[in-house]
Design a protein that fits this description.
The complex is a heterodimer. By secondary structure, chain A is α/β, with parallel strands linked by helices. Chain A contains 18 helices and 14 strands. A five-stranded mixed β-sheet of chain A has the order 3-4-5-6-7, covered by helices on one side. Chain A has a five-stranded mixed β-sheet with strand order 8-10-9-13-14. A two-stranded parallel sheet of chain A has the order 1-2. Chain A is elongated, with a radius of gyration of 40 Å. The N and C termini of chain A lie far apart (113 Å). In chain B, the strands form three sheets. Chain B has a six-stranded parallel β-sheet with strand order 3-4-5-6-7-8. In chain B, strands 1-2 form a two-stranded antiparallel sheet. In chain B, helix 3 links the parallel strand 4 and strand 5 (138-142). In chain B, helix 3 (115-131) runs parallel beside helix 4 and helix 7 packs parallel to helix 8 (272-287). The longest helix of chain B is centred in the middle third of the chain and has 23 residues, at 183-205. Chain B is globular. Classes of the chains: A alpha/beta, B alpha/beta. Chains A and B meet through helix 5, strand 4, helix 6, helix 7 and helix 8 of A and helix 1, strand 1, strand 2, helix 2 and helix 12 of B. The structure holds iron/sulfur cluster. Residues 266, 283, 286-289, 291-292, 298, 355-357, 380, 383-384 of chain A line the site of iron/sulfur cluster (SF4).
Chain lengths: 467, 417
Amino acid sequence: MQSIHVDTFDDWRDAARRLLASGVSPTDVQWIGGTERSLFDDEPSPTAADLGGEGTTPSVPKAFLELARYVASHRESGRWSLLYRTLWRLTHGERHLLEVTTDDDVYRLTQMRKAVSRDIHKMKAFVRFRKVDTIDAEEQFVAWHRSDHRILRLAAPFFARRFSGMHWSILTPDESVTWDQTSLHYGPGVPASEAPSEDALEDLWKAYYASIFNPARVKVAAMKREMPVRHWPTLPEAELIDDLLREAPARADAMIQTNEGFAETAAHFMPEHGDLVSLRQAASTCRACPLHQCATQTVFGEGSPTARIVLVGEQPGDREDIEGHPFVGPAGKLLDEALKQAGIERREVYITNVVKHFKFRETETPRGKRRLHQKPDSREIYACRPWLEAELAAIGPQVIVCLGATAAQALFGRDFAITKDRGNVMRTDWCDITIATWHPAAILRMQDAARQSQMRTQLVEDLASVK
Amino acid sequence: MDVRDKLQVLADAAKYDASCASSGAKTTRPGSTIGSTEGMGICHSYTPDGRCVSLLKILLTNYCIYDCQYCVNRISSDTPRARFTVDEVVSLTMEFYKRNYIEGLFLSSGIIQTSDYTMEQLIAVAKKLRTEQRYGGYIHLKTIPNASQSLIEEAGLWADRLSVNIELPTEGDLYKLAPEKKKPQIEGAMAGIRDKIDETKQEQKAGFKPPRFTPAGQSTQMIVGATDAPDVEVLKTASQLYSVQNLRRVYYSAYSPIPHADARLPGQSPPLVREHRLYQADWLIRFYGFDASEIVAEADQNLSLDIDPKLAWALANRHYFPVDVNKASREELLRVPGIGARNVKRILNIRRFQSLASGDMKKLRVAWNRAKFFVLTANHNPALLNLDKLDLRSKAEPKTKQLMLFDAASSALSGEV
Ligand code: SF4
């Protein structure tokens, strides 16, 4: 029985090669390894050298050497003898042994290799460089990392390739390595207490980490499985985890609170019968969007139930909201005049709005409170549109006139540009002749007098064109 | 607003994008001194929601002139807004990368001014990283809808991967929820990238050294559950994209109720498990020779949520079984529930030297609890008696539903079944 001391893969390979050449069976060797001697002790392993001259070594599958290199970094003490036994079997009639992954020895080796690979992967992932004082205007980065196995030499070349233009060191309790932008230099192990303690950039990194966490999906076990807790001390972001978890329920609640998507549409308030009387009745209690809360009442469409022309505006204004009828304020007056000039009787048409409640912002003026019109957003328009669709279905008009951009976009889609397509006859799902023209309120708001009268003329022309 | 505040807003806004995985080109970019794309898929951290952090995933800005209803950045949303400068993104990427926090940059943006203007800004970031910083790490740029072809081609010179998001499974869905985005335009942009990739490959083959063009290919993202399009539609669209546009990856993002969401969207997210099932089905299409329409066995055209798609297929196609692990072809073995592609390869190797019994299958770590009902092994396999029994489904169903949820979190990376 021979006893052989080995510390590194190279030791083992030299020894194994000689033993194999001299035909020494695995049962006749005792491998002694795992001494805490540092890899930097350059003294050669005396026992390995004692093994005598090289004989002819039978060829060994390349895959085995690679496997052995990984397994050698594992901390388990039985690895050297397991490797030699496998080598022996491979060269003594079981050439394809490695393919038989169900074999006990191969299985154990594979498991060890997996553990080492995983550990290397974790080093690549969890090394965190910290910038230290610059030397000669050159940035210096240092990381401290604790690996499960002795993998620094397997992992370091990766860092050298990735951070080739950077001066860095990785310290581990077993050994350390420095890259000077040309080559890797290995040195003794370093305790965590000697590692740099912080980097100003960590604050930004933590801010990023906290922002990408979705509090509605907490999966702590999954996180711990992939990012083992033993690595947390060297990960700056890990110190946020407790707080993030504690705040998660409240943040998730807040997300739901601001989630307009939890509201409904007017479709939920549709009456059984789609006639105008039932619709008007049902709309008076609509709560599909928050607009009903501040407005006085629902302002539903009005006019002839058999109208040939339906006019659609944006939303009721201040006066409409108080009186409960569409187009009765200043804009309504202007519309009435335009209709008259175009030769259309108001009582022959049906007039309604895309949104049925008044949306406004309250401001203090020297003369008291004023309610300022606010444009409905797409969420409110969408919520309210079922009413308009039901009105159109009940009437079945031959002509629809959209007054203003909001109404036009509600019917033609959002890329409709009123300045470009005003007055053009288009076909929609609701009727063959659909046009868009200026909203009377837009005309009233126009400062430029010449432009204002031009718009007014165009409104009359557009109305007359569909008479 | 300082960089930290912007980072909070613009990282938060990007977190709904699923295409997070980095996968790299095999060779290092010539002339780079910091960064490589080897060792693809390193996750540098994990958040408490179980998701991995591998990229600095941010938007250049979350202002947007569009109004896509599933998107938190749409013009009508009242979310807080911010905008990075090109230099800020370059510096953040370099500083994070040098500290080994990230594997690269995933940069997307809301549309500001015009599509081309926005695209130019994204290109400026990538170009600066490559030329001024000599950065060789991963860059994924999300192309801006309707940006001109010449800009997309320029982006491909600097980026490792480009993505053009298909957004929604069907044309009708797009029409409804993202009227500004049109399917022909989206597919046209994809085809443009594919042509350029092909062209680059041709030139390489002919012995020229063309400039790199998106060496990691192109990918896309589809939002699932925002409309009622069933899984079969989702998968058909995906497999078409794989075959016609030669995409590397299709990412599925379960629509999650976003703050400030639009009312036409469902208030509740479809279960995460649906996302997971789609990744599994996607995997079956790409690597297992399944067809999109045969995978969906349920009457409602959706994948089953309680069992994986391969098991569902096997239960619906029992005449196909049992499969003999010692004799069956590769294609047949690939269809056995619980046996993944890697194990099929191992089985084929081992059986050249010895035959496999059920004990060996367990050692290979196949999911024996599922596989055992469908295979013949060298020894007696009593579970096989259940193959024709009505209650097979309940026997083969996984007992631990909880675990399935954890898998769902990582399923974007591998949908292996
Ligand atoms: S604005 Fe329309 S949808 Fe909103 S509550 Fe009023 S009627 Fe209903």
